[in-house]
Specification:
Four copies of one chain form a homotetramer.
Chain A: E1 4-5, E2 10-15, E3 21-27, E4 31-34, H1 37-47, E5 63-67, E6 69-70, E7 73-75, E8 79-84, H2 94-98, H3 106-113, H4 130-146, E9 150-158, E10 161-162, H5 169-176, H6 186-201, E11 208-215, H7 229-237, E12 243-248, H8 251-254, H9 259-262, E13 266-268, E14 273-275, E15 283-284, E16 287-288, E17 293-299, E18 309-313, E19 318-322, H10 333-356
Antiparallel strand pairs in A: 1-2, 2-3, 3-8, 4-7, 5-8, 6-7, 9-10, 9-11, 11-17, 12-17, 13-14, 15-16, 18-19
Helix pairs in contact in A: 1-4, 1-10, 4-10, 7-10
Amino acid sequence: MKNTFGNNISITLFGESHGPMIGATVDGLPSGIKTDLEYIKACLRMRGAYGKISTARQEKDEPIIISGAFAGFTTGTPLTVLIENTSTSSKDYSELFDTPRPSHADYTAALKYGEWRDYRGGGHFSGRITAALVAVGAILRSALEKKNIFIGTHISRLGGISDRGFIEYASDIDVLNSKLFPVLSDESAELMYKRIEDVAKDGDSVGGVLETAVIGIPAGVGEPWFDTLEGMISHAVFSIPAVKGVEFGSGFEIADMLGSDANDPFTTDGEKIFTSSNNNGGINGGISNGMPIVFRTAVKPTPSIYKEQKSVSISRKEERTLKIEGRHDPAIVHRARAVVDAVTAIALADMLATKFGTDWLRDN
Amino acid sequence: MKNTFGNNISITLFGESHGPMIGATVDGLPSGIKTDLEYIKACLRMRGAYGKISTARQEKDEPIIISGAFAGFTTGTPLTVLIENTSTSSKDYSELFDTPRPSHADYTAALKYGEWRDYRGGGHFSGRITAALVAVGAILRSALEKKNIFIGTHISRLGGISDRGFIEYASDIDVLNSKLFPVLSDESAELMYKRIEDVAKDGDSVGGVLETAVIGIPAGVGEPWFDTLEGMISHAVFSIPAVKGVEFGSGFEIADMLGSDANDPFTTDGEKIFTSSNNNGGINGGISNGMPIVFRTAVKPTPSIYKEQKSVSISRKEERTLKIEGRHDPAIVHRARAVVDAVTAIALADMLATKFGTDWLRDN
Amino acid sequence: MKNTFGNNISITLFGESHGPMIGATVDGLPSGIKTDLEYIKACLRMRGAYGKISTARQEKDEPIIISGAFAGFTTGTPLTVLIENTSTSSKDYSELFDTPRPSHADYTAALKYGEWRDYRGGGHFSGRITAALVAVGAILRSALEKKNIFIGTHISRLGGISDRGFIEYASDIDVLNSKLFPVLSDESAELMYKRIEDVAKDGDSVGGVLETAVIGIPAGVGEPWFDTLEGMISHAVFSIPAVKGVEFGSGFEIADMLGSDANDPFTTDGEKIFTSSNNNGGINGGISNGMPIVFRTAVKPTPSIYKEQKSVSISRKEERTLKIEGRHDPAIVHRARAVVDAVTAIALADMLATKFGTDWLRDN
Amino acid sequence: MKNTFGNNISITLFGESHGPMIGATVDGLPSGIKTDLEYIKACLRMRGAYGKISTARQEKDEPIIISGAFAGFTTGTPLTVLIENTSTSSKDYSELFDTPRPSHADYTAALKYGEWRDYRGGGHFSGRITAALVAVGAILRSALEKKNIFIGTHISRLGGISDRGFIEYASDIDVLNSKLFPVLSDESAELMYKRIEDVAKDGDSVGGVLETAVIGIPAGVGEPWFDTLEGMISHAVFSIPAVKGVEFGSGFEIADMLGSDANDPFTTDGEKIFTSSNNNGGINGGISNGMPIVFRTAVKPTPSIYKEQKSVSISRKEERTLKIEGRHDPAIVHRARAVVDAVTAIALADMLATKFGTDWLRDN
C-alpha cells in the first residue's frame, strides 16, 4: 500500500501543509520531454484561486525542478519538482490536534499515524499537496499533447446548475483550457459563480460534478483485468481529496438503460471504425476503443465551513463544538479540475509507456 | 500495467472462456488461513445461475487448489486455484473474429492483441473468469470474517425498482449472504425478478446498481494519496466487466449538498468515537474512520442481447448487422454481486496485510 | 516481499514437491510469441537427469499451457503453465517435520510458516519447482533468440577442475546448448564427470561454478540505480536454490586489479564501438554497453548427502543425528545451468519489455 | 524497470552531480522513527573523505529533511531528504560529452538517454548520489538498532592485503562503526593505507573486497523464490557503482567444498537452535536462520585514473586518447562500506516491514 502511483512512470508526492516545501518525485520518465516552466505555471494557475470566491491561501507556486531535467528537457533519470510553501500562517493549530474537523482527515490521521502526525493545517492531507500533482501532470500533459492527446474538464453540475455537455470535443477542450472557471456555457458559468458567492455569504460550502474528456488516445490501451483504463483512472482520481464518485460514459445512468439502448453500435466511414454513441465512455473490456474517453467525478463540498459543527475530544471521548477559523474556499470544484486533468495525464502516460515503451513519450 | 492486483497479496487471473481451465494465482497469503472448499463453493453459487432468469452457461464450478494449501490450510506459499471449463460449446466463433459484438471487448481485443487473440467466447475477457476471482475472494473473505469483518451487497436499483437501504448493517449483511437474489425487501425482489423476466422475453437486457457495505474494518486503514481506500476498492471493482461507475457514501449526491449537510458530525458514547451520519461512506482522507464502508457500483446491461445490432467488418471496414446466437443472461447484476464482494475482500485484505503484516490475516 | 519477479513481465512460481502439479503464471507477455512445446521440453531436458550421476527423481516433465496461448502463440493475456508431479513417493516425511536437514530450508520454513508448512520433500522449496522456471524461461528465451539474443552457460569449475573460458561466444553458446553436460572442453568434461562419480561413491556431494554469456543485448538496457542489469540478474539468479555467489565480468578478481588494468578501453572499427577487454562483463553504470554480458554463479554442493549429519529436534531442542534416505543427486551444477539460463532470459526479457514496450518481444 | 527499490518501504534516488541538490524520497516509513540528524551526519562522514588518500570532492553533506518528519520523528508520510551540492566545479565537461571515460557510465548513458543526458560529472551516475542513499540508510539503520539489529562492514581485502575475519560479531561491528577506515586488524589497516598511497602516487587506483555482517535479524525473514534475502540484498548492493560481485557465507569458495564440509550442522544449547558453522551466511532457502548474515562485495578500482587511456569519439567513430583531469579518489572501498551498510539496512527494513507490518519498525 503506497503513496506512489504508476507501473512504469511512478510518482510519489511529499510535503506537508506547513512544511518548508512540497513536491513530487517521478521515476520512469524518458529523456527528451520538454520541461516548460511556463506551461507548468499555467496549469498551476488553473488550480489557483479564482475571483472573489477563492479567499483561501494564495501561494506564488513557483515550481523548481532540481533533478532529472537539463537544458529544458527531461534527462530520463528521476525528476524531482519542489514548490516552496510561502503562506504558512503561524497560527496555533494545537486545538485541532485533539478536536478533529468533521469530514476532514484529522481523525483518521490521528488513528493511522498517532502522536507523530503533522497535524498543522491538515499536514500531508492538505489540498496544498495537489500543487505538486498538477506540476507533474503538466509535464506529462505537454508530452501527451505532442502526441495529439488532449484532456479537458468542465464543471458539469454545481449547486443545481448544469453546464451543457461536450459537443465538439477538440474545440470544447481548447476553450476549457483557456478558462480559469471551466464551464462551457457562459450563462451556466455566471449562475454557478453566483451560487458559490451566495453559499459563501452564508458561511457554507458547495460541491459539484466535473466531466472530463480525453481525445486522441489510440485504441488498444488498457488491460482486461485490474489495470483497466477505468481502474487506473479511478485509482488516480479518487486520491484527490473530496472526490466521492467516478463514472465512465453514461455511468450510473447506464444502469437504468436497456441493453438495446446502452450498447454502442459500431459504424465506419470506410477508413476508421467508430461507435455511433459513446455510452461506454470510449472503453470496452477495460481498453480504449478510439472514441473519446469520458468520465465524471463527484466532488464533495469543502468540509471547511464557518458554521459551528459538532466534534469530539479524541483523548477525553467527550463531545465538543468546533468553529473553524481562518480562510476557506466555499467551493473547490473549479480548482479540482486542474488536479483531475493532472492525474488523468499521469494515469494515461503510465499506460501508454507500458504499451509502447517509455521512450515513446519523448518529444520528436 | 498489469493483470495483477495488490501490493502484499497479489492476484493474477488467468484462463479463457474456451480454454481447458481458468484460475488464479495468489502470492503473499500467510500460512494458516483455512481453505474451506464448501465455503468457496457457496460463494461460487452466489455467482451462479439463478432461477429462470439465468439461462446462460451453467458450470459445475468445482475449484481445485493445486498449490499453497496443505491439510486444509494455506501454507504461506503461492496458492493456485483451478476451475475446469466443462461447458465450452463447440460452436463456430469465427464470425465474431471479424464482426465485433457492440459494447463487448471483441473490437478492443482485436486492436490490442491482434491476430493472436483467443476470440472464442470473449476469450480472457469472458465473465467466466470472474469465477476464479470469486474463489480467491472467498478464501480472503473467510479470513476477514474471523477478524469480524463482514461484507454484504444488495441490488439497490434495477430497471426503475429500488430496494430499501441498509438499516441494521450486521443483520442485513447476514440476510444478503443467505440469498441468491440479493435484495433486502422481498417485495422489491419480486418486482425486480419480474422486470428481468419481461426484459428477457423481449430479447433485451437490463443493468442495475449494487450497494455494498463492509463492517468491522478497523479505523486507520488506507493511505492519503493514491492507495486511498476509495482508490484501491474502485481499482478492483472497475475490473469487473460491465461496471461503469463507483461511488462512496453519498457519492454523486454529495456533490449537490451543502457542506453543512454533507459533513458527518463526530459524536461519542464516552467509549467509542463515531459519526452521526455517514455521507463519506466510512472513509476520510482515503482512510477508514471506523464507520461502515459503503459504496455503490453501476452495472451496465449485459451487452449480449437477441436483437439485431449494427456492427462492422474489422478487416473490410464495412458495416454489418449482427445477431448474437446462443444463451445469454438478460441480467447479471445479481451474479455480479458475488464478484463485487470478492474484489472488496481482496482489496481490503491487501491493505490490512500491509498495515498489520501478512501474518495478521492468519486464523487464530 | 514477493515470490514474484519482474516489472513488466511478472512471473509467479507455485507448487510443492509432493503436490499434484507445479507451475508458473506469467503476466505481461505480449501476444504473438511462439509457444513451442518441443523447445520447452528441450530446455527441460537440460535441467533433467544426466547419465549415472543423476540418480534422483526423474519426471516426465510434460508442460501444459492452460491459458494465455492459442494456436501455438501467446495471446497476450496471462499464461499459466502446469507440470504434473508424477514421481512423488509415498514415503513418510514426518521425521523431517521436526528434524531439519542441515543447509536445507526445513528449519527456516518451520520458522516462517509454522505448523502449516508443507514439509514433504521440501515443499515449495524443492528444486523441483525450478522445472516451472525453466518452462517459462524457455518461452522467453525463444523470443529473445528471434531478436538474435543468445544465452549459454558452462560449468567453469567443479571439484578443482576448470573448463576453458569462452573464446568465440556465438559458437561456444551454440555448442553448450547442444550438450546435456555443459562443458566447453571435452577433456574437462570427462574429468568433472569422473569427479562427480567418485564423490557419489563416497555418499558425498560437490558444487561448482557456472559461467554464463549473453550476446546480442542492445546497448542501453538497464537503470543507473537499483534496477541495474547486475541487480536484476543477480536478484533472479539468487533465487535458484544452492546459489551463494554472483559476479560479473572479472568479478571478485577485479577487486585485486589496478584501475589501469581493470578499465576496458574503448575502441572502434569505424562503425561499431566496443571495448578491447571486458572486465566489466558488458555492463557500465548498470547498463549494457553492447559487449557480451558475462557472469559467474557459485553453486553449493547439494545439501542432501548419504553421510550421517548432526541436527536437532526443533520441538524438544535436543540434538539428533540424521541420515537422509532416498535418492539424491551428488551434483546439480550441470542441471542448475538450465535454470540460470532461464532466469537470465526472464530478467532480460523484462528489462527489454520496459525499454521497448512489451510488444517488442513479439515474433515478427 | 525502475530506479526505485523496496516493496513496502520504497526509495527513489534523484539528483545529478552538478545539479543544485541530490536527495531521496522514501514512501512507506511508519510514523515514530527518530530522525536524528547527528546520526545521519555520522553515517555520511563514514562515506566521506579520509586522510590524504581521498583527494576528491569534499562536500559539507548537510542533509535537510523537508517532508515526512515533524518534531524529530517520522510522521508516516513520504519523507524527502535533500543534500545541497556545494562543490560543483565550473569546469568544462563538454569534451566528455563525446569521449567517454573507460569503465564509467558515460558511454552507456549516451546510448540510453541520448543527447538529453546530463553528462556533467557523470550526472545521475555519479558516486555523489550515494550520499542520499547513506542518509536514508541511516534513518532505517537507527530504527533497526532499536530492534537490536546491527550492521558492520570491513575491508576484507585490498591490493593483496587481507584483514582478519569477524570473530566476536557484536564487538567487531561496534569497532568498525567507530572507524573511518574500517579494518579490524590495525596492522592490515596500515598496510592497506600505505598501498593506496603508493597506487595514488602512480596515478592509478585500486579496488577491494568488503565483508558485511548483520546480527539480530530474526529467523524467518525472506521468501523462497525471487525475494530471497540473497536476492534482495544483492539487488540493492549491485546498484552501488563499482560493485561487480556479491557472495554470501562461503560464497564462491563453497563451490569447491564437499557437501559434508559445506553443510552447517544444527546444534542447540537446549534453548536456542543454531548452526556450528556458517557456510550459508545465515540464510537457508532464501530465509534467515538466526545466524549472522554474512556477505562479501567486490568493488572494482575507481575507473578515474590519471594515466592516459584509450577512448573513442562517439559521434565520429574514431579512436581518441583521454587523460582525465581533476580530483579523483585512488580508492573508494573504504567509502563504499558506508553505502553497503546503507543499502543493507534498506533491504532488511523493507523485508521486516513486509513480515511484521510497517509499524513494527517504529521506535518504542
